[in-house]
Amino acid sequence: MPTCDLSGFAEAIASGEIDVVDLTFTLSPDFPVIVMPPEIGQSAPVRIEEISRYDAAGPAWYWNNLSFGEHTGTHFDAPVHWYTGRDLPNNSVDTLPTRHMIAPAIVIDCTREAVADADFLLTVPFLERWETAYGRIPVGAWVLMRTDWSKKDWRAYSNLGDDGAHTPGPDAAAMQWLVIERDILGFGTETIGTDAGQGGHLDPPYPAHHFLHGNGKYGLQCLTNLDRLPVRGSVLVAAPLKVQRGSGSPLRVLALVPKEVA
Amino acid sequence: MTDPIAPPRRKDPLKRTRQPTLPPAERSRKAHGLIRPAAEGRFMLPRCGECGTFHYPPREACPACLSFNVKLADAPAGGILASETTIRVPSEVYFRERAPWRAGIVTLDCGPAVIAHLHADCTLGARVTLSLQLDRSGQAVAFAHPATRTPNMADDRQWRELTADPKFRRVLVTDARGPVGLAAVKALKAAGAGTVFAGVPEQWKPFAGEAELRTLEGVSIVPLDVRDDRSVRDLAADIGAKVDILVNTAAHIRPGGVLDRDGLNVVREELETGYLGLARLAQAFGPVMRARGADGVNSAAAWVNILSVYALANLPAYGAWSASQAACLSLGQSLRASFRPGGLKVVNVFTGPLDIEWFQTEPPPKVAPAALARAVVDALQRGLEDVFVGDVAQDIHARFIADPKALERELAG
Ligand SMILES: [Zn+2]
């Protein structure tokens, strides 16, 4: 007698008792990509080039060639992406433990703060207040920072000024606390990076990348529909492409949300 | 005087678009020597190295002393219109469609008598100035202008057949994000272009000239990323039939040769924007432009490539980028042949280092984006096909013509 009722689970999905929420942006050429100083290496953007479309190049079939950087669209960051995670075991997307691809998620709603301040930084006191209201952040969970940033047009979404991007993210202490004190699985955002747009000026620079990947944790960015998730009680399915020694990849992120908590 | 051309009306969708036809293209191989001066806007004639006599049409030997030592030389372009005729029912389809057509014989001050197409303001016995022009077949012909300016001179019907004047034409500037694109948009508007479509890739990224671009009258900012198939095709679907002149300003300029770089990403980006960008634009916009070569006052007229003069001979300090420019030059030659049935010009505007951030460390003289833009407009107005902008480009071109191998060694430092 199995302890888990997988057929019951499948029935709950089929019946809609469990909602399946797509947290993924459509992978498209015009979606903003992280911007680097022009004299250093750049991520290739997403390109979709038609091979044939029921035409002379292929009379009965339609297909495309795809190309993109590992960190384009809604995408996953593996520990090997950052220097702090370079020596960890199983640190790339092809060696990622499969059980980490399905995990619970909690949502920290920073919408009000992000509206007030594009450079809003998530802090430890903010997280402690969240725990007072909703309980302790579970070990092995995805922590998703909701800002509704995904609802903006692309220009406001990337929000580039002459001093770089202005988008919200975690501060260094909050990131260290989540990773060390709460032993989360990973951290997810709606913005282009797990770090704030001005995160390069924090100490250490890019603290989300620094602490997450240095401790074998993961990143998810360019998420959408976080407003359709409950604060607690959802489960994420986030399986990156199995790219050889890949540092990350675009992926489909699905959230399983039981009807009663939605 | 010439009646000014009126802004073209919108097309009657019930009328068939007139198909392009071409003037007769047969010439002697000797006569092909006049194509280069015509393309560059120089008035050159065969001149005897022994006795100094100019002659026309080009022959193997000097008609005065029979010497075979004949070379093209810059010639004084002034003369007298000695005879003129108006052909009312020409036998060639191209001329018949454009009849009546005026032609005449000009006696040049430097000697030869030359059969020329005539500007309407040239009168019998009056002084005229000749120029060599490329006709729609890409062959060199002589054109006589009045020696002094007359009102609305550029609107002359026969002259406009030989040029790609932007007046009333709609122009796509493919990348207006940088200083060259912005300068081109402004210069084309100042030259009387109709709508100028200003392509801007990645509109979510702000850029320096954006506020100014948005204030320009008659400029339509359109999404265009030449590195993206779909972006190019989507824009062509919207405005392809309204582009009379395309000016490709998209460029990805980076210093260094391939040994100065780690991996091929930058090389690929140069080719993606330069060579493949040009190929994408040509596939998306070329066929309809070619089909609209005789579509009235605002017929499709020209395709403009802005190229580095180091497309001719590699500058190792920008070695990989120079190579990508050489690829664009070769593709440009292919496009000339492809556009020929439509009678369109492919204009290659060669420049030396520009006064922009990617040539920051290059010594002067550098070409200002506004000067480059003026050269583009001048080439279109004069019907040129090869233009060398600024001292560096002219010097490199002259040395390339003289001795490409010596130039290669000299550029290697
Ligand atoms: Zn002679």
User: What is the string of helix and strand elements of chain B?
Assistant: HEEEHEEEEHEHEHEHEHHEHEHEHH
| Rg of chain A, Cα atoms, Å | 19 Å
Distance between the termini of chain B: 55 Å
CATH class call of the largest domain in chain B: Alpha Beta
Give an overview of the whole structure:
The complex is a heterodimer of chains A (262) and B (413). Chain A has helices spanning 6-15, 111-116, 124-134, 154-158, 172-181, 207-214, and strands at residues 18-22, 47-55, 58-67, 75-77, 102-109, 121-122, 142-146, 160-161, 164-165, 169-170, 186-189, 218-221, 234-238, 248-250, 253-258. By secondary structure, chain A is α/β, with parallel strands linked by helices. Chain A has one domain: Glucose Oxidase, domain 1 (3-Layer(bba) Sandwich). In chain A, the strands form 4 sheets. A 9-stranded mixed β-sheet of chain A has the order 1-15-13-5-7-11-12-4-14. In chain A, α6 links the parallel β11 (186-189) and β12. The longest helix of chain A is centred in the middle third of the chain and has 11 residues, at 124-134. Chain B is of the alpha/beta class and 413 residues long. In chain B, the strands form 3 sheets. A 7-stranded parallel β-sheet of chain B has the order 10-9-8-11-12-13-14, with helices on both faces. In chain B, strands 3-4-5-7-6 form a 5-stranded mixed β-barrel. In chain B, α4 (179-190) crosses α10 (369-382) and α11 crosses α12. Chain B is globular and about 65 Å long. The model of chain B has no long low-confidence stretch (mean pLDDT 96). Classes of the chains: A alpha/beta (262), B alpha/beta (413). Chain A binds chain B through residues 29-30, 32, 35, 39, 41-42, 44-45, 47-50, 153-155, 157-158, 160-161, and chain B through 202-206, 223, 225, 227-231, 254, 265, 269. Bound molecules: zinc ion. Zinc ion is lined by residues 48, 50-51, 53, 62, 64-65, 67 of chain B. Zinc ion binds at residues 48, 50-51, 53, 62, 64-65, 67 of chain B.
